[in-house]
Amino acid sequence: METLESPSTVAPVRVRPGWWYRQSLASTLRAVLVAVLGAMLIGGLTSLGQQHLPAWINSLANSVGGWTMLSFLLVWLGRAKPLLGALLGVVVFILLTESYSVVSEWRGFDDGDPFTSIWTVVGLIAGPVLGVSAGLVRHAPPLWRVLGVAPLSAVLLGEGIWALNTIVATTSPVYWSIEIVLSVLFLAAAIHRTGLSTRGIVTVACVWVLGTLAFVGVIVFILN
What we know:
Shape: globular
Distance between the termini: 68 Å
Radius of gyration: 19 Å
Oligomer: single chain
């Protein structure tokens, strides 16, 4: 009697040549439009959110993790390839910073001169990483798709742990706890969707942990 093998539940991913850089004019314009308009809107709303969001989630408008998620999301929504994503990651982060500053100035708060914030420097360094990561999640082979989620998850886990141990006395623990949960969920969802092997999962987990430690180190020794 012939034994039938059960079919895989994970569909194979077809990766075309040029997946990391080849864009049409239409796809480039779409990605740029989503990134620019989205960043300007979200940056402006951040200034308002600091005053009007409920206390339990107010930290969303004051967290690195919040802008990291939104920057990643804007590049991902625009479907940019990794090469274009590297540029758009910088554009998004800087526009978030500058549109936040403009709206804050309109509201009567002095936010300094343009392009002088520490977050401009952070955007120049972290922006390409986030943009490439979002592009990998959209277009890369399975292992790289999951690795593309690792930087985002590392930031969320690192900031959540740091905040719960450092500033929980002055902020609600709810948002920081949500960050930690989202960190795990994002990575777990990516692993489930791609059906990685055990070896691949171990690789991703190591990158996630190392990224988390690196991020905490940056917060403790550089940003504070």
